[in-house]
């Protein structure tokens, strides 16, 4: 079954927005990313500005974060910090690896699952070959679904799980999680697009079974 590029690009934009929001939050929380071109503390105000000036460059920060994770692999915050640094330097494979290991240690942490899903979705968007792209979207979907199961009121987890399952050509699962999103956000920003996509799948249209 061929993937509709226009549809995938739409979902990919949602993934990218979610990823940037999550990792900007990580930069704010941990005071990392000294080469960011804007002051992220302006976004939230009232923070100690000294936190925005971590010592050393990104590679030094990565080395310190790697040591922290090595010393305490069960520390979900340390894992998130390291993944954020890897992401900022374009090391998506490393970010996914550390998040997967983090999830093994903290399987009930929904944030780690969401982050892994976002990374896998971004990898899928740039993957070469349809088979590999579907595999990565499938892995993203499983991570988002895990986050939704852990945090049943997280509408974004349901939305992204549906999107990723759709991109992986698993329409049944896509509809299941999209219905979960619509139950939480019947008038949500993406509700109309989701309803239209569900209708297309149920009609057996493009991307349907």
Which labels suit this protein?
mainly alpha; 209 residues; elongated; 0% strand; disordered N terminus
Structure description:
- The chain starts with a helix and ends in a 7-residue tail after the last helix.
- It has nine helices and no strands.
- The longest helix is centred in the first third of the chain and has 26 residues, at 5-30.
- The chain is elongated.
- It has helices spanning 5-30, 58-71, 76-88, 92-105, 110-126, 130-150, 155-167, 171-184, 191-202.
- Mean pLDDT is 79; it is low at 1-8 and 20-54.
- Helices cover 69% and strands 0% of the residues.
- The chain is an all-alpha fold and 209 residues long.
| Residue windows where pLDDT falls under 50 for at least 5 positions | 1-8, 20-54
* Total helical elements: 9
The overall strand count is: 0
Give the SSE order as H and E letters. HHHHHHHHH
Largest sheet: none
Structural classification: mainly alpha
Distance between the termini: 9 Å
Alpha-carbon Rg, integer: 18 Å
What is the residue-averaged pLDDT? 79
Proportion of residues in helical segments: 55-70%
Question: Per DSSP, what share of the residues sits in E-state strands of 2 or more residues?
Answer: under 5%
Q: What form results from the Cα inertia axes?
A: elongated
């Amino acid at each position: 079954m061929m993937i509709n590029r226009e549809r995938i690009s739409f979902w990919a934009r949602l993934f990218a927005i979610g990823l940037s929001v999550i990792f900007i939050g990580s930069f704010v929380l941990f005071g990392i990313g000294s080469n960011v071109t804007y002051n992220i503390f302006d976004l939230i105000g009232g923070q100690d500005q000294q936190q925005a000036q971590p010592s050393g460059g990104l590679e030094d920060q990565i080395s310190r974060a790697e040591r922290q994770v090595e010393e305490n692999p069960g520390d979900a915050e340390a894992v998130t910090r390291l993944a954020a640094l890897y992401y900022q330097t374009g090391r998506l494979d490393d970010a996914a690896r550390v998040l997967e290991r983090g999830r093994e240690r903290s399987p009930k942490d929904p944030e780690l699952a969401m982050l892994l899903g976002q990374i896998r979705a971004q990898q899928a968007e740039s993957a070469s070959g349809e088979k590999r792209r579907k595999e990565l979207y499938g892995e993203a979907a499983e991570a988002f679904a895990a986050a939704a199961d852990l945090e049943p009121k997280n509408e974004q987890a349901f939305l992204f799980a549906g999107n990723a399952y759709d991109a992986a050509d698993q329409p049944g699962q896509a509809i299941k999680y999209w219905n979960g999103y619509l139950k939480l956000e019947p008038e949500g920003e993406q509700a109309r697009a989701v309803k239209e996509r569900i209708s297309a799948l149920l009609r057996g249209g493009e991307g349907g079974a």
